[in-house]
Structure formats: structure tokens, C-alpha cells
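Write out C-alpha cells for UDP-N-acetylenolpyruvoylglucosamine reductase.
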Amino acid sequence: MLDIQSHVSLKSYNTFGIDAKARYWVEIDTEEQLRTLFQVSEFLAAPKLILGGGSNLLFTHDFEGLVVKMSIQGIKVTREDAAHVYVKAGAGVNWHQLVLFCVQNGYAGMENLSLIPGTTGAAPMQNIGAYGVEIEQIFDHLEAVDILTGETRIFNHAECRFGYRESIFKHEAKGKYIISSVTFRLNKQPVFHTAYGAIRETLEAMGISEDQLTIKAISDAVIRIRRSKLPNPAEIGNAGSFFKNPEISKDDFARLKADYPTMPGYPTGDLTMKVPAGWLIEQCGWKGKHIGNAGVHAKQALVLVNLGGATGAEILNVAYKVQQSVEDKFGIKLNPEVNII
Ligand code: EPU
């Protein structure tokens, strides 16, 4: 049975805490319900928004269609070989719960991605990443339902066309599929990713030396770092990084570095450098600033915040102003990482 509701507040379903409304709303808990959805006229006729944890979107108006909240649960090991364990998770599984399940069972590869808000089904869409690891490194395949035909289709790694905060689901496949489950390939023998400076420092502060390293220790360190920098959406509305870190040419980087010697940058190819957007925004004086109840987080300038009761338009206004400042000062265009609806 499907329980289609109308005029539902989305406030508790987006981590910015924006009080937008859905014209129609349905929650999907099982694959059976997902199949039934294709017999519902509201579903076939209306514009659709597939919602996971609502942790990477900004509502700037009410949604005049059907919001499909994906809540399919379930984590199971589907296969094992000498080196790997394959773990399948329903689209609605909370991402951090999945990470904890893997860490507790000694399945390595996800530990650097601890405490990222959101659901498993949404994770491949922007190839979530943090502290030197991206989901594509452990992704095996996913199952998705074609919105037009209702048929299930498998996407393997190559078909997802992963990039930095990118996948096919943000481009050609955008709005065409509902991801129902994702299968990951975890390692029995861990490969520790501790190159990210903050991880090494935090492990040291936790008194963990290199020979004591475990995936649990890395997960704990990442949790500590995230808690110290990123606002908890339950307390301050936010969607993590609002913008992507921009990539610029090495020539442009050298030119800017001459004027701003402290500007950080990481090579991403022979000719390109990635610059932390948080640094650029901070240099423009935005860190900790707000306009009304919409602003820039005081501990991490890449995170825009709803200090209470802001509208999506107010947050977007801050985003435009931040973009403008960065472009005026550095000639660099910031692109949002968050989906603006
Ligand atoms: N920085 C500043 N001021 C700030 C913030 C950052 O100067 O206010 C500079 C510092 O030089 C710092 C560098 O930026 O060393 C990097 O900062 P941080 O380690 O916080 O990472 P980030 O590049 O700002 C990215 C991801 C985060 C992820 C972290 C850790 C993007 C868009 N964001 O942020 O992902 O957690 O790295 O790997 O790539 C998210 O996507 O929502 C997210 C939180």
C-alpha cells in the first residue's frame, strides 16, 4: 500500500531546515512499494523529486510535484572472495550507519567517509568524498529503476562516470532513475588513507601511533574532525560544503600565488590545481558573517548556514554574494555543490 499525502512540510526532511512544502508526498520503504509507485497516476503525471536524507539540497520554493522519500532499509553481505567483501545496502540506509556496520565488521574502505550526512542511495550521485577517499574507490554497482518504464537497471562503476562530486546522475541520467540499492566492494586487508593532514594530527592527538592504526581509529579521528569543524544540522541548518572546490590552471594559480602567497592549492593534473573554496571565501571576509538568518559558518567558510528561520531564497542570496566576492577578488567562479530546487 502506498500512502500518498498532499501539502506536506519538508522542513524536517532537509538539513537546511527550509520550510518548503511538497504538493504530493510518498515514502517508499520496500522494493514492492517502489514497483507499485509506477501504477499511481500522480506519480506518472507529476514532476518528481527523489529525496534521500535531504542533506545536499536547498529548497528555494515549494515543490509542485511528487516528492518520493526513499527509505528502503537493509544491509547485507552478498558475496565474498579472498580479498573482498561485497555489501549491499538499501537506498534509505543512513550513510553513517552503513560506515559503522563496515567498520565494526572489519570491512575496510569507508572509514574516511564517517559521519557524512545523508543516505546510501544519494551517495553515488555526487560521488561523496572526504579526507582523501571518494565513494567510487569502493563502489561496485547499483540498482536503479527507470522512471519512465519502471524497469530495474544495473549501473556498474564505468557506467556511473564518477568524477569529483560528479556522476552520470547529475548529467545524462539526471531525473531518469530512482536508485534502490548500492553494492560496495570492501577490503579484507585495510589500506589506510592518512595522507590528509588533519587525520594524522588527530590520530596523534588521540595517542594512536602508526603501528596501532585500525579502521576504527581512522573512523574515530574523522568523526572528531567533522564534529570540530562542521555544524550539526540538528542544531544549525546546513548542507555541508555549499560550493565545490574550484579547479584552475597552473598558470592562473602561479599568477594568484604571486599576489596571495598563502593561497593553498593541490595539483589535480599536469595543468590544473584545486584551490580550497573555503580559503577563498574566508579571504573575502565572509567567514562567520550573516545577512539576517542566513550566513557563512564561523569554523568552515565553505558551509552556508541557516541560523534559524531563513528561507531558501535568503540562503541563495548569501551564496550569490559569496560567489560575486570571490569572482571580483580572485577571478574564480565558484559552482554550487548543493542541488538548488
Ligand atoms: N580553508 C580555509 N578556511 C576555511 C575553510 C577551509 O582557509 O574556512 C582552507 C584551509 O587551507 C584548509 C583547506 O581549506 O586546509 C581545506 O579545508 P578542509 O579540510 O575543511 O576541506 P575543504 O576542501 O574545505 C572538502 C570537502 C568536504 C570534506 C573535506 C575533507 C568539497 C566541496 N568539500 O572541504 O566535504 O569533508 O574536504 O576532505 O570538496 C561536503 O562535501 O559537504 C564536505 C563537507
